[in-house]
Each structure stands twice: as structure tokens, then as C-alpha cells.
Amino acid sequence: MVHPFDPVSDKEIQLTSQLIKDAAKGPEKPHFIQIDRLDPPKKDMLKYLEAEKSGKSLPRIPRVTYVYYYLGLQFYKALVNVTYGHIITNQKQPKGVQGPLIAEDIEEIEKLATSHPIVKAEIAKLKLPSYVKVVCDPWMNGTDGVEDRLLIQCYMYLANAHHSESNHYSLPLKFSPVFECLTKEFVRMDYLPSGVDEACINDTEPWTEFPFVEYHPDLNGETIKPLKPLIVQQPEGPSFEVDGQKIEWQGWEFRVVPNCREGFAIYDIHFKGRSVIYRLSLCEMTVPYGDPRAPFHRKQAFDLGDAGFGATGNSLALGCDCLGVIKYMDCRRVNTAGESVLIPNTVCLHEQDGGLLYKHTNYRTGVPVIARRREFVVQTIATVANYEYMVNIIFDQAGEIRIHVRATGILSTMPLDRDVTVPWGTNVGPRVLASYHQHMLSFRIDPAVDGYENTVVFDDVVRMKKDPKLNPYNVGFVTERTVVDKPGYVEQSPFTNRSYKIINENKINPISKKPVAYKIMMPARQMLLAGEESYNNKRAQFATQQLWVTKYQDNELYAAGEFTNQSQTDTGLGVWAKRRENVRNDDPVVWATLGFTHVPRVEDFPVMPVEAHEISLVPFGFFDKNPALDVPQSSQSFNKSQYFPESSSKDSCCKSSL
Amino acid sequence: MVHPFDPVSDKEIQLTSQLIKDAAKGPEKPHFIQIDRLDPPKKDMLKYLEAEKSGKSLPRIPRVTYVYYYLGLQFYKALVNVTYGHIITNQKQPKGVQGPLIAEDIEEIEKLATSHPIVKAEIAKLKLPSYVKVVCDPWMNGTDGVEDRLLIQCYMYLANAHHSESNHYSLPLKFSPVFECLTKEFVRMDYLPSGVDEACINDTEPWTEFPFVEYHPDLNGETIKPLKPLIVQQPEGPSFEVDGQKIEWQGWEFRVVPNCREGFAIYDIHFKGRSVIYRLSLCEMTVPYGDPRAPFHRKQAFDLGDAGFGATGNSLALGCDCLGVIKYMDCRRVNTAGESVLIPNTVCLHEQDGGLLYKHTNYRTGVPVIARRREFVVQTIATVANYEYMVNIIFDQAGEIRIHVRATGILSTMPLDRDVTVPWGTNVGPRVLASYHQHMLSFRIDPAVDGYENTVVFDDVVRMKKDPKLNPYNVGFVTERTVVDKPGYVEQSPFTNRSYKIINENKINPISKKPVAYKIMMPARQMLLAGEESYNNKRAQFATQQLWVTKYQDNELYAAGEFTNQSQTDTGLGVWAKRRENVRNDDPVVWATLGFTHVPRVEDFPVMPVEAHEISLVPFGFFDKNPALDVPQSSQSFNKSQYFPESSSKDSCCKSSL
Questions:
Q1: Where would a tag sit more exposed on chain B, N or C end, judged by fewer CB atoms within 10 A?
Q2: Cβ separation of A224 and B609 shorter than 8 Å?
Q3: What is the span of the domain harbouring residue A39?
Q4: B136 in a structural domain
């Protein structure tokens, strides 16, 4: 039986698109952009989950899909009841609202960008040798004011024509055609600045050879270093069980559900029989660039809202992306014709060793108590044009949930004139600029800490006042708690060790005598740099603060709002966090901005070693003691390690000789 | 042949103690505390390393040991030339200067603390049943003013008499005898406050039973969770080579040298033939507590200076502390009689998988380039009474060095009266208080970024001013660099994304056109909370700021100074960082404070799941491209992963049915 949280199926996608096609009476055929399952209403789901837990008969919750499509240049959103097969609503969206980009359109534009006569004329001026080809990276337009057309900015590059994996990012060109995304009409040719200011624009001149900087092993000129295998074996199989989308592992129970916008969401997370989170996902990411020169000022991607992390998800391969015994899940998306497209293996699930979980050696007896941290990983990797993002949600045996993100892939590069450096970027190759930029990710945490009535608080650690009686030596420090009772954001305060917590005021821990809690651990970070009056800022309010709280409402899932492509303003947290509602001991939603400013290194090119960032959710007085005391002791009979072969150590016989 | 960086040998320890014994003419026998090798003078070593590199004949550098010992109550330090066998200097230390504590003294005090008649009389008042025993945790005294005697504060606990591994920290007692450490004389009995202020002190009354909170699997009452093996196999052996202390791995070369104070230091670190660091180590840690009530205000351990991370190092066990193929190194210490004591396997060295190092999927062809991050780990684990600290220095294939610290073990607990809570601590068990405290670690980085003339700088990322020509859209941001030319500290500034770098102004990267650099990545943290006028603060100036710079001088190795036990003042950075010297393009030393405020969780008891913190050192325009392009591609033929057995998935046949 299908579960209300189960992902959209091929049949549901096809039924949805068929109903929309049938409803489109005019001459234009629907041009589909996205179809996926709508989250069921939470009120209904809580009853469902309650019944599921207690083994009662399950209420029927109709399956509903949403669909984004265009008729001509008009953008529509509809909701479809796919259980009963009818359209619920079908709405023209206001002028200026655009849907995300879709692979089929991008592919067409990409081809056009090298075949359109105006571009071909420009390319001809380069007088390229036959071993060099032109490649196009289509970019969302971003915004610098009202633009009703859905535009694509094509950044152009050169690459080795004789190898499909040549790195075009090492040879950026100085012209950039712009196309209309739906009609595929040529709009204009932009000429790119390649010097210290916007005025440094050159005419297109014959290309003079300079080196390619390649990353593919066939081309990079490197001799591969010898490395011996390190194999993860699970001879008795994995320690997790899978039942549809439901996972059980070491006391954890949850449902992992791929979707095309977020990559995946995890629902109904319980540990040791107690609820922790109702829904957890990466819900948006924006990548604004700090290069002020037109047209680069419009480089601001919303990787989820403008593209989709499932839709751009990698098909993960056994033995490449993770080690051990791997369970895969697939994603489905719609194509522009309304057909379901399978993207296999976009989510992988597996165990890994996480080093030691705890150890104590009794120095009196020399006896250690020692447990290793086994971890359960839910991973997706998305390729958004040049960049790769790895999102790992990692569970451990002590009740911790770690959100672990790695950025890798290739820097989006721009041309530079010889010997030029600019203060907003790094020269990462000969005449190749990688501008400073930021990666601002929003993780949406819909908590259920021991129930659904939760409260968000933050604690500061502060010095006690000097007091001749109570603090005569001036060493004391205490915590001070502030309750968040209205929606909004919490300011960062690293120097008071500010920590955010989700508590349940109705459940008092018998040991600590304080409300049970989960703590959100994230280091203080620079938030969005773009000025308050800039579009980059107005469109991404979520990225201006690290932690936001709103009151739960159905369908408020994405931090920057539902439609981000060419948006002028944030229709997410920028709106919802302003509502004057109570969120204390109610149903708050927490939005955590994991942001990092990326000042590119030369070493980040031609492919970037991962930069990793984390948010941790840890039980804080949720249990009455360490919940991992039931983990087996770490032992050689279980782990089967080996001594280093000492004979290969050249002077092992004369160690410590004087 | 012995290398100048090689660790102290048994013979060197014995020769040193024999020379000191021979020199001690008086009636008192030397009471030894610590003997170890002194670092060779850097000036001499640079010549040695130069000769070593170029294959020239090696200059002879005499091996020198230092020795700490007492004659009666007088503390001495001597330096001994163990190559030629003579004492270089032998100095009485000023009144009040004390050496670190040593295991033999602690063991004697521990026994006395339950056998001394005054304590026995107090214990008798508890009227304990036979299944309960009394256990003592001896603590360094700390400081609250001039105290010439070397004192030990004995915190007392109850435990299950029938099991050696019973957790005494779950039953703290309310009296605390104080002994003189050298004479073993009883000094006084302290009675501990167990209520909201210092005045809440009760007479010792008969013990009334309340539950033990146990961590040992024999006692904790838990049913062990089933977990299937995850085995790391290296069928072709490890990828590293060992030659004495020298390690070679994936382009890295360095020497790992155990010592009794720091656990280990790593010398002469090169990557791909270029020098990066001359010496790297954890050089001090202080743990001040925030409980203001006497005598707890004196709880401030200096785990290296007061005890020693090698001296308290765990003998790591195969298959327990790490997985795969493991190389071990030993530590040596002196006992009070002057004999060498071997602590086997205090340092382990091995490889581990670190997930993906980089990936890029060409969306046009679907072809991924993908490399896994193999890591090389140097690990030590120290047990300083209740707490365990794991220090991992982790090297990767892209030139990164990660300092990864995990805190685990058991909270130092204090008694509480029934139903009492206090604002400076967490109730972690029935009537058990774990006070808030801080762990402030100092890592000493003696850099050699492409040579020994280095400069420390910091970069801030700041918004560009609005400018109608250059920044009309107000999205621009740039970096601003500040050079550290005098010793001192750098203030944290997370909201300008401040990053510290060690650069070599004499070597310009041909690509970036900027000096080659290594970047120090560490998140902003709360530093020492103890007030400026407190001893906790005066003794640990290093812990008040995150990053310090001094000019290199021989024998300036420890952030809080050489002698920390009962110190009144910091004789390390607090002195050296005030010297008005040039450190630009000279020989700077960087001291990075990795600090965290520990507000205990109930879940941290009775044994604490690891809390991990990191500092990363990454090449920043040091190479002319990603230095890891020579890493083999990640492939199934190499990694041998397995598919999840789908038959165990209960409804795998009806996935995505509508």
C-alpha cells in the first residue's frame, strides 16, 4: 500500500500531465516544468501517524501532486488529486513569476548558443583551430529590475575538441549571448568586462593559444600516485532494514523520500521510540557572486528553486560514491512533454565507521570502555552546472543527527586580461578569474521533540557578576535562556557561546529537571554580503540570518519562497517570519542557514577539493543518560585490524638506540 | 643512527637520572618528575635538515635532555648533554614554582585518601554497607593565592565494591581531604557545598542509598544492540612507509615523535617536496570550571603542564581504537626513582577513508571525475583522570592538515542536595552535578611555508562601498589584508569571515600572483570566561584569544609557560607576545586556541559521546592547481562495494505502485 509520504510515482506524474493536457483548451500545448507530490496536510498526517503507531485503521489521505507548466509565455501552477483523478486548482501566475529551469530547455539553448548565426559570427572572429571547440554554460538570468521574459545568460568557453571531458572552465570567452528560454529567441549579445572595471570590454579578437587546465585523468598530464585498496567489508550484511521508504537502524526509524526540488526529505524521525523531527530537508540554496560588474552582478543561483536538487541529482555508482553495502533510491521528474523521467540512484543509504563514539580508561585498573561510532548516511549529490554539492544526513547511535555538506566541482570562471588581478576574485588559471561568492543553504527543520508542541530557545553562557559572597574569585559562569515566542530570527552570538535549542516545555527531564531538548550546533558565520537594497539580498532574506523561526503552515517549505527564478523579492521567510503569531509551545519550524563565503583558492581549480560544513542536532537532556550505552564494545574480534608489517620498517631493529 | 628529532631513549633517561643522582650530594635522594629530550636548537637543525635533503654529511648535534626533580621540597630543573654525558645546567627553581604531577605520587595519595585516620573517621560516619567502597580522584590544587606547598585536593566518591569498573563519578561525597603531594602529609579537610551557594555545607551523615549510574557493560543494565561488523581491509597492505620516526605517505613526509608532555609532535612536514611546517603539536590545554563556590573555584587543570599527554597516554589496542593496518609508536617517561617506564602504543598511525575528495559530473556527457579522500591519521588518546582526549592530526592528498580533537570520558562531578539545581551546572544524575567548564587547547604551529621566512596575515571579506560606476547594484565584496608585524594576538571576526594565513612573501604564486600561503581555518569561539583579575585568567592568557603570533625562540614551546602547576601567572604567551620584535618575513610561531565551552548534557553521563572540534590548515595559492589530480579515480574494481540485498526489503516488488 502506498504511504502518504511515498514519493511521486510514474503513474501519478503521467496522470497529472494528462489531466493538464486535457484541460488546456487553447492552441498551445502545456510545456511542463515540474511535477511532484505535495506534502499531505500535517493535521491529517499526525492522525495517520498516530493510527500507524497504535495499529489502528489508517485514515485515507488523498495523494495530491503539484504541477508547474507554461502555456506559451504564461506560467501556471495546478494541484491535482491523483487519488481520485481531478484537478483541484489551476492558476495563472502573476506576471513576472517564473518557474524553474528544466533540462530540455537548457539543452536546446546550449545548442543554440553555438549554432545561432549571430553567435557563430562572433565565434568566427576567434579564428579557432580545429582542435578547439566552443562550449556554453547557460545561466539563470537573476534579476536587476523588472524583466518579464524568462531569460538565459549563456557564458561561453573554449575546450579541447578532441576530448568530451575537456575543462572548458579554463578558457572563458568575452562574449555572452542572451536567449529567451521558452521561445528560444536571441535577445542580445553581452560583452564581458575582463579588466578592473566594467569599462574594460574588448572586441572579439582572434584567439591566441594559452594552456588548458584540465582535470580529467586522460588530459591532466599527471602521473597517478600509487595507492593501495582500503576495502569496507560487511560480511554479515548491513545493520539497517528497509521497508519501502522506511528505514530502521540502531534505534532510529524514519522515511527517506526523494523529490525533485530538495533531493530528498526525511520524515517522521524517531529515536528509541520517541519522536524527534517531523520533516527535515535542505530547502533552498542561493549562490550570489561578489563581482560587481555587469552582467556578473546578476549571477545569483537558487539551486533548488531555479533548478532542483533531485532534478540535477547524480546517479550514484556502486563503489564510487560510497563504500560498503549500499541501498539506492531513485528520483522521478517530468520532462517538458509531460512524461515521467527516471533518475536512478540519486539517493544512497549506507553505514560508515565514524571513529570512536566514547572511551574511558580507568587509570587505576587500565580497563577501557570503548565504543566505535557507527553512522548511517543518507546522501545525495547534485550537479548544478559547474558545481557539485553533497548533502549527507548522518545519524549516530547516541541520538545525534549531523547535516554534513560538501561543496566540490568546478568554479564558475570568467575571462581576465593578461596580468590583471581584481579585488573580488582569485586568478585560478592563466587569464581565468573565479569571483568570490557565497553558498547559503537553508535547512528546514520541522521539529517534533517528544511531541508536536515545541518551543525554540537560545542559551548564552555569560560571566557571573563579581560578588564577594557568591563569586569572590571571579571564575563563575552561568547560562541565560531566552524564549522565542514570536516568528523571526535569532542573532548570532559566538562570544556568548549562543546555542539554539528546540525544547518541549511539557516534558521535564527527570534528571536535569529541565524541559527535554534537542540542541542545534552550528558555528558563527558571515551571512549574505550583498547590500540590503540589492536584489540579491531582497530575494534571499533567509541568507541574512543564521536561524529563523516561523509558525508551521502547510506548503511553507522553501526558505526563499516557492518561485525564485528571476524573483524580485523573497516570498518565503521574508514574509512568514513577519507574521505576529505565537510560536511558543506551539508548532514552530526552524530554518537554519548554513552559509560560507567562498574565496577561491588556486587549489580549487580545475576541480575543487571538498569544503565541508556541518550542522549538528544533538539530544540535550532528552534522555536520562547517554543513550548509546547499548552499543557493543569495540574489539579486535569484531573489527579485525592488522599490525603494520614491521619488517618493511627499515630500522625497526635499532629503534631507540642511543 | 639516531636522528636529532628521535624521541628520548631508555638509555638517555637512565643516564640523565644517574647523573642527577650522582650530583645530589645532600641527604635527600632526587624525586624525579619528568625527563625528556630537549628540542635541538632550530638554527642547528635547519643546517642538519638542509644537509639531509642534499645528501651532504650531517652535522653532529648533541642530544640534550631536560629533567625535573625535587630534592625534599625544593624543585629543580637540569639540562643534560646525553651525547657526552654531562650536566649542562642544574637550577633550583624559585619558591612557588612546582613541577607536574607524576603517577607514583598520585597513586600514593589516592591510597592515603582512604586510609588516613582522619579520612577514615569521616568515612565511618557514612555507615556504608559492605558492597559500597570509597574512591578518591586526586586533583591538582590550582591557585587562589600564594601557596608554597605542592598540594593535592582529593575529591571523594562511592562506588560498587564488587566491581572494579563501577562508576564512582555517579556518587560524589561531600568531604574532600587535602594532602601535601611530596611529604604526603594531611593538610586539612574541606567540606563541599552541595546547595545553591558556598554556605550550603552539611555534616557527614549516614549514606542513604540512591542509584549508581554505571557505564561498564557488566553493570549498566543495558541490552546490547545487535550490530553487524564493518571491517576495513587493506589486502595489499598500507600505502605508507615507516623509517624510524619518518613517515612517507601520498607525497607527505614528516617525523612523528612521541613525548611525555605533548603526546607527540610532528616535525619537518613536507608535501610534494615543499616544506610546510617545522613543528606541530598540541602544546597546552587548560580546563577551568565555572562553579564559583570554594574549593571548586580552584578547579583548573593544565592537562599538559600539570600532567602530560604522553605520560597519561592510553596504550592503544589493535582493533579497538582504529581500523585497518596500524603502526604504533611508544612513549617513555621517568618514574620517581629515575627509571625509564615504557608506555607502549601511545601513538597510532593509519589510513582511513574520508569520503569524497572531489567530484565533477559533466552533465552534457554524464561522465564523472571522482576521487575519494584517503586520509593519514596520527592519533593519541590521553586519560587525564576522568576525561579522555583524542588528538588526531589528519593529512589528506590535497595538502590539507586537519587537527581533529574529540573530548570524551567522564564528567568531573560534585555532590548536590536533593532537588537542588544550580545555574553553573547540569544535574547529570540523581544528586550529581556536572559544572560548566571550558576546554581550551593550544596548538603550536611553527610554520615553514616554502621556507622559514614567513609572515602571518589575516584577511577580511567586506562589502564594497556603493558606487554608481563600480558597484551600482551593491552586490560587490572584496578581501582586505592585514599584516601582523609585531607579536600579539589577532581578534576574532566571524562576520567579516576573517581568516588567518601564513604566507611567504618571498615566493609569489605564478597563477594567483600573490604570495604562497597556508590558511588556518577555525570557527569563531567563545574564549576564556574567567574574569581578567582571576587567577584562572592570569595563568592562561593563551586561552583569552584564538590566535597568537610570537617570534621563534628556542625552548618557547608551551602556551602557558613551562611550569603551570599551581602557577600564579602565565609565563608563556602572556610574556612572549609582549616583546616588541619584528615577526614579518621572519620566523613567526603561530598559536591557535581551539576552545569550547562545555555545558554538560545529561547524555554526557555516565560516559560522554565524543564532542569533536577542528582546525584545518589548507594550502591557499601554495600550488598552481589542485595538487590531488594525481589521485586514482574511485572505482568499484578498487573499492568493492555491494548492493543492499533487495530481497530483505519487504515490499521491494511493489515500489512506487499507485
A1: N
A2: no
A3: 10-92
A4: no
